[in-house]
Structures are given as C-alpha cells and as structure tokens.
Amino acid sequence: MAKKESDKKVVQAVVSEPAAGGMWKIVLPWSLFAITAVAFIIYAVVQSTQPKLWKGNVGEEPVATVDGEAITANEVYQLMLGSVGPQAVEQLITEKLIGREAERKNIVVTEEDINAEIDKIKADYGDDETFLAMLEWYGYTLDALKNQLKPQIMLTKLLEPEIEITEDELQEYYETNKSEFVTTPEEVKASHILVNTKEEAERLLAELKAGADFATLAKENSKDPGSAEQGGDLGFFGRGEMVAEFEEAAFSLGIGELSGIVESTYGYHIILVTDKQEEVVRPYEESKEDIREMVFSRKISERSSAYLEELRAAAKIDNIFDKEEQAS
Question: What is the pTM of this model?
C-alpha cells in the first residue's frame, strides 16, 4: 500500500485518512473594502495598464489589431467600465471618504506604517521569496499592494480611538481559542500489527499476552508493508492523521500498553504504544499581545462597515452608476 508521506509514517498508507485536496489559497487584508474577486483582478489590470492607455484622453488610438482591424483604447475602456465600473467607483468613493476624514483629523500614513503591515503579511509566508511568489500568483506588484494598504491603514487609525479591549476579553479569547496557541501538539508513538481476519488477530493477541515479541510478530504477520519491516513501528503521529478507530485506540493507551483488537476499514489491528508527547500550550501572558492584536483587528472589522456608512451619509455623493441602476 502507498504511504501517505515519508516512510517514517506508517500506515499512512494503511491507517491514514486521505488528505483534503485544494489549491494554494491566499487571503490578503483588503476585505474591509469589499472588493470582489473579479473587480480586484480587473483593478490590478487597470492599474498596470493605466500609464499606457489612460495617461491622456481615451480615444480611438489602436491598442491592438486583428488582421489590420484596430481595437481602440476607447473600446477597452468601455469594456472595463461596463464590467467592473460600479465596483471600482464604489472603491474609489470609499477611499476618497477615508482620505478626506483622515486629512480632517491630521492622520498621516507613513512609509513605516505601510512597511509594518507588509512585514505582518510576510510573516505568514515565512520568507520574502514565498511572499513575492504569492504576489506574482495574484498578478500584483509590491507597489500596488502598498497603495491598496494605505486606505486600510487610514481607516484603522481613524477607528483606533473608538476601540476598547478589556482584560476579560483577552482572557476569554485565550480560553475559547486555546488550539491557536499550541506550540507542541499531542502525539503518540505506536507500533501495530495489521491482519485480514479477526481470528488471526485473536491468535496473535494471545501470543503477545503470553510474552511473544511484538516486533517479531509484526515482521512475520503484519499486512502493512510500510511498517512491518520496522517491526510495526509507525513513529510519532498526531490527531487527525489516522483513521478514527485507530486514533481513538492509540491515544487512549498509556506508554507500554497493548490494545485489544481494533477493527478499521483496512482490517484488524493490534496496537502497542511506545511513547507519548503531551500537548504544550503557550501561556496566556506570553500570548497576550498577540491576542490583543487579533481582538483589535476583529473589532476594527466589525466597526468599519457602520463607520463607512456614517461617512457616506455625511457626504453628498453623485454616482452615475446609481442613476443608471435607478433608471433601469
């Protein structure tokens, strides 16, 4: 049977659940501005082509030809305007409102502010190379990201005086989300013997209880090719790596304890736990500042929509797309 990962891991071929598939997905911090995926992609295209097409008037100059027939800058402009115009205008209105309010309150976003946010994003990806690969995957540049972050930082600075965080809130978050602060997960080191029938398992279990050597019986009888040669040794594994029946039995045993017969979709197992590693959780006091930042971000996000609506209500906004929608 194929192993789930390296030869270290066992039964990963035999008792591991299949890993969930999926593509590499990145979440970037501009959700406050409700940019849809399509609008975001087109916005990036518009930003990258703007110096070429829209530096002056949009006219009939060709930007491409097909057998000599021109595609004009105006055609491109009209296509983009029709497809993402409403979203782009809403984004620009929001940015204008934020920018004016920040100016009124003498709030300035510095290069250091922006770089600090960039560093937070980089930290999620480990190194500059991975971070830049992520940007390239989105068709984005570092300068475009910086421009996109600026209104978000302004909004955060505008809302920061309204945000209050109590000690009780921090402690509640810690207790409710302790899994986020696990530094060393709980793991078990175990060996197993896998056979096809219950009768075989009962015979081998009787031999083990009579003093037979577990590793020897595993090499001679186990149907798991990934671990049989190692005397049934699976190495260390955490929760969620093995099928449920196997995991439940392994984690319930103490070091040196032998299981009964455990049935799974792969057959019948006898499990011997040889070592354990207890879960280690980072203490509250060491986690406190990280928690404060997470709670702060959540409160900013919760408050932002209402705050932006307040700014809109206080401004006179004339949007051609609103008129077109009403007319239709």
Answer: 0.62
